[in-house]
UniProtKB/TrEMBL annotation:
<dbReference type="InterPro" id="IPR023772">
    <property type="entry name" value="DNA-bd_HTH_TetR-type_CS"/>
</dbReference>
<dbReference type="Pfam" id="PF00440">
    <property type="entry name" value="TetR_N"/>
</dbReference>
<keyword id="KW-0238">DNA-binding</keyword>
<feature type="DNA-binding region" description="H-T-H motif">
    <location>
        <begin position="32"/>
        <end position="51"/>
    </location>
</feature>
<dbReference type="InterPro" id="IPR050109">
    <property type="entry name" value="HTH-type_TetR-like_transc_reg"/>
</dbReference>
<dbReference type="InterPro" id="IPR001647">
    <property type="entry name" value="HTH_TetR"/>
</dbReference>
<feature type="domain" description="HTH tetR-type">
    <location>
        <begin position="9"/>
        <end position="69"/>
    </location>
</feature>
<protein>
    <submittedName>
        <fullName>TetR/AcrR family transcriptional regulator</fullName>
    </submittedName>
</protein>
<dbReference type="InterPro" id="IPR009057">
    <property type="entry name" value="Homeodomain-like_sf"/>
</dbReference>
Amino acid sequence: MAKQPYHRKNLAAAIQQQARQQLEESGVEQLSLRQIARFLAVTPAAVYRHFPDKASLLAALRVEFQEELAATLREGVLDSPNAAAMLRRMVTNILTYAQEHPQAIAFFLRTPSAVPQSLQTVVALLAAQQPDTPPVGRAAPAIWTFLLGTLVQLPVQSATVEEVTTQLMRLLRA
């Protein structure tokens, strides 16, 4: 076997990009650092220099997915001054993302995650616009938990934006 080049510009980013592609195509269980090395035409040692093990690569992917999901949640939310419409847009965003990236969502759901700041902000606006809304400290985690539970159910049971939004509004009034 010919010796592969060790120093490739932005190799860490290329490794992470290929890992994400593998994860989205086959799931986290099939992710292989050696396959990534073969695909990128580098030695496994070059991959291990950037990510000493699969866990460190998965940790980097988790951060990437968290940032992407947070950005997805925020997308288009401020197009309306109505907090209920903002919440509906967030539901639309997260369900669309889950449909487009089911393996990423399955990976994301493996560990707990904090309530995104954008969701807390929308719930605070909702509380200001609808006086019967519970305090943000209770409502935001309840909504986030409900949304994550909906994502868990998606492979088995579909959910529409209308159904999820209606249930969330009911949850807020309970």
